[in-house]
């Protein structure tokens, strides 16, 4: 009798683990939340959260224009990744800066790209 209860509990435990495992959704710690089909209603992701909280560092007068155009501002966070958007760039392979273990620069393509976009904006 005790052995059958242990076996039943073991089977129920395995079924529970399988059921929970199958119900787990994939979570990404860094991303756009998907690409938006409507620039006026962008999908919200980690990039947007960071961009929105970056506004907290600006004085009200300096961020007012962005707040009045918040959807465009948030939509813009996906343009570096989305090559299919009208103004998209899609250069995700260039979004990094790597250093060797000794601290010296290994690859600064992300900084180079940021400088290029800064120069384009001038």
Question: Can you describe this structure in just a few lines?
Answer:
This protein has 122 residues and is mainly α.
Can you put this structure into words, describing what you see?
With 122 residues, the protein is mainly α. It folds into 2 domains: 89 residues, no CATH class; 32 residues, no CATH class. Helix content is 49%, strand content 4%. A two-stranded antiparallel ribbon has the order 1-2. The model has no long low-confidence stretch (mean pLDDT 85).
Radius of gyration: 23 Å
Provide the number of structural domains. 2
The structure class reads mainly alpha
Mean pLDDT: 85
Number of helical runs? 5
Q: Which series of helices and strands comes N to C?
A: HHHHEEH
Number of strands: 2
> Unreliable runs, pLDDT <50, ≥5 residues?
none
Secondary-structure map with pairings?
Elements (H helix, E strand, L loop, with lengths): L1 H22 L22 H9 L5 H9 L1 H7 L21 E2 L5 E3 L1 H13 L1
Antiparallel strand pairs: 1-2
């Amino acid at each position: 009798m005790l052995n059958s209860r242990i076996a039943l509990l073991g089977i129920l435990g395995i079924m529970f683990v399988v059921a929970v495992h199958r119900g787990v959704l994939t979570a990404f710690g860094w991303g756009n939340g998907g690409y938006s089909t409507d620039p006026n209603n962008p999908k919200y992701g980690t990039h947007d959260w960071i961009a929105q909280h970056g506004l907290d560092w600006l004085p009200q007068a300096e961020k007012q224009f962005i707040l009045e155009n918040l959807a465009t501002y948030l939509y813009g966070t996906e343009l570096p990744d989305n090559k299919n958007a009208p103004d998209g760039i899609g250069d995700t392979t260039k979004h990094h800066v790597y250093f060797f273990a000794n601290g010296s620069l290994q690859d600064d393509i992300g900084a180079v790209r940021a400088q290029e976009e800064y120069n384009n904006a001038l």
